[in-house]
Amino acid sequence: MGERKGQNHYYPPDYDPKVGSLNKWQGTHALRERARKIHLGIIIIRFEMPYNIWCDGCKNHIGMGVRYNAEKTKVGMYYSTPIYQFRMKCHLCDNHFEIKTDPANLDYVIVTGARRQENRWDPTQNEQIVPETKEVQKKLFDDPMYKLEHGAKDTKAAEDAKPVLGQLYQRNSGVWRDDFEANSRLRAEFRASKKQIKQQDEKDKALLAKSSLDISLLPESESDRKMASLMRLHSAKSIAERDREKRSTILTRPALPSTSGVGESSAQKVKIAGAKLEMKSLGIVKKTAASPALVLASGSKRKVEETIVEEKKPKLLLCNYGSGSSDSD
């Protein structure tokens, strides 16, 4: 492939092989635009994101494997291994972030402009096989006693893991002895769960349509059921109690503004309103029928009083002052 490309290069008539390569004769670099900053020690390469990060400029997530045109610069050495730094621009904003290699830990380190999404864990916590570190490898090579102790620990760990491995082997052999049966069982469970999910979706849609809501409902939990059972959406008083209170309020309210009821408590007013109304309490006196003797006595008494009043009235004297004789007067 390389020879074919070399043979296909065009060499002009004035080309001098003594100058060197064709790129050197033309004064260009083989990387063309990617080497436009080579005089500053910078080469533009295609960099692939080694892990998930968060951009500090736009706060967006950038996944592992996203590729950028990065400026590659040599910033140091780790023993005989060079340390490179890559500077690139976020494709979602104008922020730039820099990442450099870490040969000591076989990793990449974010310098500026972003932060790493932590998905790292200790492999020894989940019983993964961890390769030996350089210090341990050096001790195993130089110290025979340490190598013997290390081998004894490995043998003890293997003996301790045998029962667990045996249980796992028995379980796998019991479950996956018949692939068709295991597959049929899994598919039956999947169909049952799918049917339950479909029924729950229909219930949720009916509830949302009834409530005129357009939200996503979460699955129910035991705490939600307890809270719903403790809630009371109806009034604390019944209709009869509210009608009774309204009636007592109307009865205790004075018809005319007065101060006669000042100082009386509401309990006293309710008691008065609830008491049975009697004629005596209202000031009504019932007249009794009089006997005939009393009627006659009262009639004679009235006549006597009338005669006494007539006697007390002065008598009128008629005189004729117009006549001349006094005898006739």
Automatic annotation (TrEMBL):
Organism superkingdom: Eukaryota
Coiled coil: none
Biological process, per Gene Ontology: mRNA splicing, via spliceosome
Gene Ontology CC annotations of this record: post-mRNA release spliceosomal complex; U2-type spliceosomal complex
Annotated Basic and acidic residues bias: 239-248
Region (Disordered): 239-265
InterPro entries attached to this UniProt entry: Saf4/Yju2
Family: Belongs to the CWC16 family.
Protein name, as recorded: Coiled-coil domain-containing protein 130
Organism expressing this protein natively: Culex quinquefasciatus (Southern house mosquito)
Lineage: Eukaryota, Metazoa, Ecdysozoa, Arthropoda, Hexapoda
Gene name in the database record: 6036014
